[in-house]
Amino acid sequence: MAFSQPALPVRHRDVFRFTSLTAKPISQNQCQQLATNCCQGGSYHSGLPRRDLIQSLLLVAMPTSSLSAQAAAEAESLQTASTSEAASALQQGVPAALEGKAKLAVEQALRKAVDKTKCPVVLRLVFHDSGTYNIAAGNGGANASIQHELERPENFGLKRGWKVIQQAMSNIQGTAAEGLVSQADMIALVGAYAVGLCGGPLISVPVGRVDAQKADATDRLPAEDFSADRLKQAFQQQGLSVQEFVALAGAHTLGSKGFGDPLTFDNAYFTALLQKPWAAPNADSMAKMIGLPSDHVLPDDADCKPVIQMYAVDQKRFFRDFADAYVKLTMLGAQWRSVATV
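The structure corresponding to this sequence follows.
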């Protein structure tokens, strides 16, 4: 039996964001119905941790069959919980939206700390920080633990990216943003800024993440020689769909991997994947160095290829899907401080 009382009030646009965490696609009509069922007006939150989403929204208005397998299992164990317990969980901490002077201070700090040449490395830093999340283990994720993991082989070269985070944190000292933006928040904010600076979508991410005090578990990040199946499995274990994984892989358009201009965020990654310049009969040494083995396997995968083809001809769709997937990535596993708005 699901909760007998209405969910806590939230804004319609937040409900639309929440539904992106389910495994099955949800239509706009279904989103609107969910919003109608759950929204009572009043105060709101700009986002909710996945656990609280299940407690306060999905159990009220959606059948278990609409949830991902992991969420469904959690839902079963939560069905005897009361509405007051869900309310208590929400009060423990939620993502917050930067506004006013704090938002302005962060924007100024980012402009001072980040230039185009640093964009590839800070975006890679985001992926390596959030990529330690594992649904089954219930730990890891977007928590700034990367600062304790910089000596790991897979994080080689990321010390330069961490210095950018430190500089940005230094830049907000003495401003309205000091004490409101954590290091984990700044990683997500810097990565989003880097994407926009290089011509990609403008991405708004919430703040309120709690910083980890130690390193996350090892062997969580996908290796460069993974097959397509192992890559899909790795991202599924983080709660990301194939489409989200492929969209996020488009970040390889930045940097020295050979996919177009190294400092321009566009859909060149996907057009190159379909052309396979590294496999051409007359490929020279430079062409053979384009991309990683984990890139090369994607266009031959039946699940990934349709998404690659779509993004290769529709950059706007890629930008939109990348922005949504990025926000989700930077919320994976995050613990949130007890703030409602900033």
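Confidence is low (pLDDT under 50) at residues 1-26, 34-64, 78-92.
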